[in-house]
Each structure stands twice: as structure tokens, then as C-alpha cells.
């Protein structure tokens, strides 16, 4: 069973500006870009820094510390120094317009 939890409204997410939220103690960077919303673990796989403080470009989030970029769809790094992916989580949008709810599940199983 996957439990989706409401983490924000669509209006709270600015395009290409990550927002850090927590679900069951898991830090998540929420990113609205290219017409979709993505949820990626907020901690870089290379060191313990917050990805939500990085920049978003081409559906990837760049770690501000050493510059590895993680694909928001898969969590895979596109280059060194990070070699391990960062977990990504399914996102659901419920409702219409700016009041639509953004939900994330960190339990993974479907
Ligand atoms: S801490 Fe993120 S790339 Fe080094």
C-alpha cells in the first residue's frame, strides 16, 4: 500500500524553485518544472547537503556544493562526484487550478 500525503498546494510551488517538505520524517525537495511536479529526496547522495538549495534545469536538480545534477524523474546523477542515485517518490495532483493539492508517497510500494 502506498500512502499519499498532502504536502503543498500547487500555488505554493514556483516554477523551478524547489521547496523542502517532510513526509514521515523524510526530507523531500518538491520541484515544479516543465508542467509537472517531482519529489526527490532532499539529501544529496554524495554528502549531507540539501538539494532544495540547488538550481533546477532540464528536469534535473543540481547540488550546490559540488555540482552533481540529479534527474528528477529517476534520481540518477548525470556526473561526478556523486555516483549513487537519490530516491524519487511518486507525486499525485488532486483537484484543479492553483488550489490543487500536491501529494507524495514515500512508501514506494504500489
Ligand atoms: S554534496 Fe552534492 S555533489 Fe557533493
From TrEMBL:
| Coiled-coil stretches noted in the UniProt entry, renumbered to this chain | none
Tell me which Gene3D superfamilies the record gives: Rieske [2Fe-2S] iron-sulphur domain
Pfam families for this protein: Rieske (PF00355)
Write out the entry's keywords from A to Z.
2Fe-2S, Iron, Iron-sulfur, Metal-binding
* CDD domains reported for this sequence: Rieske_RO_ferredoxin
In terms of superkingdom, the source organism counts as: Bacteria
Q: Cite the Rieske domain residue spans from the record.
A: 5-100
Q: What is this protein called?
A: Non-heme iron oxygenase ferredoxin subunit
The major lineage groups are:
Bacteria, Bacillati, Actinomycetota, Actinomycetes, Kitasatosporales
